[in-house]
Amino acid sequence: MKLIKFTFLISALALTSLANAELNWDTALTGTHRSEGNAARNAARHPKETLQFFGLTPGMTVMEVAPGGGWYTEVLAVLLRDQGTYLAAHGTPNGGAYTRRSLGGFLRKLGENNDVYGDVVVTELQPPAALVPAEPGTVDLAVAFRNVHSWMRADQVETYFSAIFDAVKPGGVFGLVQHRAKPGTPLDVMRKTAYVTEEQVIEYAELAGFELDARSEINANSRDTKDYPGGVWTLPPSLSGDEADREKYLAIGESDRMTLRFRKPNS
Question: Which domain, by its residues, includes 192?
Fold first, then answer.
């Protein structure tokens, strides 16, 4: 009985310590582990405001879906080091040449900065080969940044949403940022341009079982006209449009983006 009470006391103290902890935003956003170019994009991507809107707090288990090159990993891994768990649900190494290059670069980033990132847990989520990125019902907060159009183009969007739903705890959150299309945009245009309507994203999430909890305009950009022949890649950071129009697109800035918070029902 004394051992049980002592263990309970240690657990309670640990939880109290986490509750009183503060996330190290300064290092996560502007530390020396970040390249000048990546840190400069904080102004367009608003990582602190976005993650706070999603409800990030110390002690959470957070899963980022499709972290790509690891822009948000640079922030999340530092924030959660020693006071939480960060799962990077990347592609499978058997997912083709593009995925292997992306995953290889991501793992190299972690290895070269292991003293900064700590114990990042790299998992797999890439239908149809890898569908369980975390133990079911163990993730407090899942996040995905500008990925929905890629899942649509691969005809795997419903599978991704379903896998994320299964990983999140009852009452947990799925936070999503996506390039935002004008209402009424056809599906084929969404796939081509990477701009997706809020209504379509909400439909996918609700089909998986999530409920819309809140919306934010943190990542909105009213200058984005969303009518470029080359789609969203015309704008920074890709700047794939005509070189003669470069200054115009730089003045527009990064895309107009929806920021949505979904919640998994408690029952």
Answer: 25-263
User: Does residue 7 belong to any structural domain of this protein?
Assistant: no
pLDDT band (50, 70, 90) for residue 132 = very high
Number of domains in the chain: 1
Q: What's the Cα-to-Cα distance from 104 to each of 27, 45, 47, rounded to whole Å? A: 25, 24, 24
Total-model pTM: 0.92
Q: What is the mean pLDDT of residues 145-168?
A: 98
- Looking up tokens 């900065």 gives 113
Residue 6 inside a domain? The answer is no
* Residue among 11, 40, 14 at smallest CA distance from 250: 40
> Phi/psi at 266 (nearest 5 deg)?
-70, -20
